[in-house]
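hey so i finally got around to running both of the ones u sent me last week. sorry it took forever, my laptop kept dying halfway thru and i had to restart like 3 times lol. anyway pasting them below in the order u listed, first the sequence line then the C-alpha cell line for each. didnt double check formatting much so if smth looks off just lmk and ill redo it

first one:
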Amino acid sequence: MSRKKRKNEANGLYSIIAIIIAIFTVIIVFVIGAFVIFMSKTKTETGKVEDINAEQETIVSTGETADTNTSNEQKEDAASDNNGDQKADATSGKSIQDELAEVEAKAKEHSDNWDSSNAGQQEMNIFAGECFKIWDDELNSLWNRLTEEVDASTKDKLVKEQKAWISEKEKNSTVAGFYAKGGSMQPMLEATEAEEITHARVYTVAGYLADARGESFSVPADVQKEFDNMKTLDDVFTDLQGEWMFDESRGAVIGVQKSAECDYGVPDTNWTVWITGGDLLSDLDVYGYCGSTDTIVFEKSGGYYELKKAFDDENTVVLSFTNTLEEICEDSIFADRVK
C-alpha cells in the first residue's frame, strides 16, 4: 500500500473518531444542562411550600404572649414537631380523641414533675411558659391539619374565627398581667391565662378536625368541668355588680348594674358601669378581662379604665385610668361596697 493511500485512510479514521467525540460531548452537555434546570425548579417549588406553611403558622400565631414565653428556636422546634405529628397522624391511624388524651397526659406529667417548694419567681415564670407551650404547640398542629382538610369556604370562616380568638386571647392575657403590673409575677400571670384559654381552644379546633374526618369526638368530663369553672365576662360583671362608695361626703359611687335595670343604662348593652361625675362604660367598651382576678379593662375616651377587686378584699374595688396600657396608674379610686 502506498504511503499516500495509508495517509488518506488514517485521515478518514481520525475524522470518524472526531465526529464520535463531538456527538458524545453534545450528549453530556445536554444531560448536565437538563439536570441543572431540574434542580433549580425543585428548589423553587420547595420554597413555595415553605412560604405557605409560614403563612398558616402566622395565622395561628399567639402573638405577644407566645413571643414572651417561647424563643425563636423553640418555635422552630415546635414547627418541626408539628410536621412530625401530621405525618405520624396520617400513618398511625390515631384518632383525634386519642391524640388529645396523650397531650393531656403530657401536660399532667409536666405538672406533676414540677417542684414549686423551692422555686423562685423566675423559675415559676418559666414553668408557666412551658405549660402554655404544650397547648400552643398542639393548637398549631391541629390547625395546620384542619386547614388542609377543609374546603376553601370553610377555611375562610375558620381563619376569621381564629384571628378573632387570637385577639381576644392576647387582650385577656395582657389584662391578667395587670394584677402584678411591673412586677416579677406579671409574666407568670399572662402565661397562665394564655394556657387556660389555649387549652379550651384546642378542644374546639380538635372538634372541627374530627368532624371534617367523620370521627366521633367529645370533651372528657373532667376537662369539661375545668372549662365550666372558667369565668365568662358576664360572670365577672356579676361579681362586680352593685354600688361601691368612694366619697361619702358627696355620695359618689361606682355603679355596676345590668343595663336594663339601671337608670343610666347604655342602650343595646348588657351591662353598664357608671361613675359619679365620670364616664359611662358598658360591655361594648370592654378591651379584655380576667376571671381569676375579677378584672375588666375598658377602652374609652382615648384611654383605659381598669376595674378590679382589691387584693384579698371582696368588699373593695379599685378603679384606675391610664392613657396607655404600658402606664401604671398612681391615682386609683378605692371604693367600698354599699351594704
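and the second one:
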Amino acid sequence: MTAGTALVTGASSGIGLELARLFAHDGYDLILVARSVEKLDRLGAELSARHGIRARTVGADLGSPDAPGAIAETLKQAAVGIDVLVNNAGYGVHGPFAKTELQTELDLLRVNVVALTHLTKLLLPTMLARRAGRILNVASTAGFQPGPLMAVYSASKAYVLSFSEALAEELAGTGVTVTTLCPGPVLTGFQARAGINGARLAAGNPLLVDAATAARAGYEGLMRGKRLVVPGLGNKLLVQSERLAPRRLVTKIARLFQERARP
C-alpha cells in the first residue's frame, strides 16, 4: 500500500524536485509535471528505484491554456486519483515594467496564476467527494508587498497567497486542507531565469535558503494542515514588519533589494 499519490508541478528542479523526493521517501506515488520530460524521467526512475514507489511523468508547458485540462485528462485515462496537489511551477521576470517583454509576463501569469487556479479547480472536486486531500500552493514572501522591478511576479504571488488563504477557509471542515508556502529568496535556477543574479535580493542576501530547506518546511506544514508556512526566522520577522510598516516605505525598501548590487 502506498501513502497515496501526489502531483507535483515544476518537479524537474528546485523546490519541486526536493518536494518530490520528500513524498517518495514517505511512500507516495508521484505524478511529476514539468516541461523537461528528460529530467522528469531521470528523476522518476531514481525515486522509483530508491523508494519502491511508482512515478509517472507528464511533460507539460503550463504556459499553455490547454495544459491543465490535458493533465487532468491524462489522469482520468490512467484512472489515477490525486491525494496531494502541489502547485509549485512558477518563475519571475526582473526589470522595469515599461521595458520587460509583454509575452514573457503574460506567460508568467498563465503559469503562476492561471494554471495553478485551473488545476486546483479540476482536481478539488474528487478530493471533496472523498472528504480527504491536501493542496500545497507555492507563493513567496514577495506576495506580502509590492515588488518594484519585479512588479508582475510579486503581484502573481500576492494572488496565490490571497487565493490560497481564502480557499483554505472555504474548505474548513471538509477534510481537504490548503497550505501556502511562502519562502524568501531560495538558491535555485529561479534567479538566473528571472535575471536577478546581480540584484541585492540574490547577492549575499542573509535570508537566502537552499531549496531542500524550503521544501522541508513546506512539506511538514502541509502534513500538519497548516495554512501558511514562511521558512526561516528572518523571513517571518520580515513578513511581520512589512505588515506594520507604511506601505510606501515597504515598497521603497523592496525596490532597493531588487536593484543591482554595485561591484
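quick thing i noticed on the 2nd:
The mean pLDDT is 89.
anyway thats it, ttyl
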